[in-house]
Amino acid sequence: VVSAVILASVRGRCRFPPDKLSAKIEKYNKACLLKGFNTDIEGCVRVEADSNKLRWNEKRKCAELEKYLIKCDHSCNGGWGEYGEWSECSAECDGGTQTRTKECNNPAPQHGGADCEGEGEETRDCNTHSCPVDGGWSEYGEWSECSAECDGGTQTRTKECNNPAPQHGGADCEGEGEETRDCNTHSCPVDGGWSEYGEWSECSAECDGGTQTRTKECNNPAPQHGGADCEGEGEETRDCNTHS
Known about the structure:
Layout lengths: L17 H14 L24 H16 L24 E6 L19 E6 L26 E6 L19 E6 L26 E6 L19 E6 L4
Antiparallel strand pairs: 1-2, 3-4, 5-6
């Protein structure tokens, strides 16, 4: 069956309104093409029908009808329909593709007409924006020096949110980029320190000279944790009662 392609530019030349055009095409198909009429419409091929040849008057009517159909720009060749909707993009970001198709049905090729030329599908890029990249922590660096040599200090180490760094609206790394630990918790050495001197002892003689002593203790503080003893002597002596 010959279908119609009605172009806006030729509507003025076509004598048949759209609601009657289909009937005229159907009549032409059955009364002319299928009975061996030698068509001049583009792409159409007549059907060999020796057992059902057209009479002269029928050929004249077919030629007259064909003249008007040609003015309506009819063809047996296939014609493309409108493109359908674009498909969903194959990727949400970083670039994907989507396609849309059209059918060779406006009209479909019939009576020996040629298929539509070209491709029935087209493709385009979509969602070419970069994907968000969430941040990831690097490995920790080295521990810092301890803040104290003894009696407990702290040291820290850090890691960077660069493995990868957040990009294109991606989330920052979760948690903290620094950790702390105790260090050098052992007690510091305490060097000994002298106390104040005690009272002088009684003189060893009441006359002609004697001596008396006094002492101090290495307990202010006492040496601890490997600290040094007090330096010097813990006792001193002086003369006393030197009169005769």
